[in-house]
């Protein structure tokens, strides 16, 4: 992800405003203080130290102005959010026209349609049905359609092919969703 941010998106070469949701510590450390405008947020601040400077952020209502960010990084977050469509609408709202969002989720290539059931609420049942106790769905290959339904234009990348020596999952695609003015 970090190499993609630097090599493909050029985050150090342009004046990017970036929102990073639930930031991975290694990327947080490399971008903090080195990117023009780098904002980090998470709904659960207990995973961070005060020095990480994470803002409490709910993806259903971020409090940011329309078109605030050039880039939003949301890596393995949406599978935890019950109202995924509302979260995606909020991401689109705060993204600038022409901006992009990295929207990674775990996807089962065996599922045509994403599995979700709002009646599955216990940790045990979520683990059994969605593969992790705090997941509320298991995405299928319809994930791209879910993003397009919101109005995003999509590009997908195989980071395994782009960076074959990094030991990445050959099945995982990186999704870059863009907001257009139409």
TrEMBL record:
Gene3D superfamilies: Vaccinia Virus protein VP39. InterPro entries: Methyltransf_11, SAM-dependent_MTases_sf. Residues 44-102 form the Methyltransferase type domain. Pfam families: Methyltransf_11. This is Methyltransferase type 11 domain-containing protein. The lineage of its organism: Bacteria, Pseudomonadati, Bacteroidota, Sphingobacteriia, Sphingobacteriales.
């Amino acid at each position: 992800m970090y190499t993609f941010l630097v090599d493909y998106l050029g985050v150090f070469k342009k004046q990017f405003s970036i929102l990073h949701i639930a930031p991975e510590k290694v990327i947080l450390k490399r971008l903090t203080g080195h990117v023009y405008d780098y904002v980090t947020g998470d709904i659960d601040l207990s995973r961070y130290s005060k020095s990480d400077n994470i803002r409490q952020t709910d993806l259903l209502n971020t409090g940011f102005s329309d078109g605030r960010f050039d880039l939003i990084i949301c890596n393995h977050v949406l599978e935890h959010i019950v109202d995924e469509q509302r979260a995606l609408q909020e991401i689109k709202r705060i993204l600038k026209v022409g901006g992009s969002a990295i929207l990674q989720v775990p996807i089962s290539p065996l599922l045509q349609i994403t599995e979700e059931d709002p009646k599955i609420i216990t940790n045990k049942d979520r683990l059994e049905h969605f593969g992790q106790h705090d997941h509320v769905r298991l995405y299928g290959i319809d994930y791209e359609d879910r993003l397009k339904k919101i109005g995003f234009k999509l590009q997908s990348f195989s980071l395994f092919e782009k960076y074959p020596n990094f030991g990445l999952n050959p099945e995982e695609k990186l999704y870059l969703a863009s907001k257009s003015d139409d």
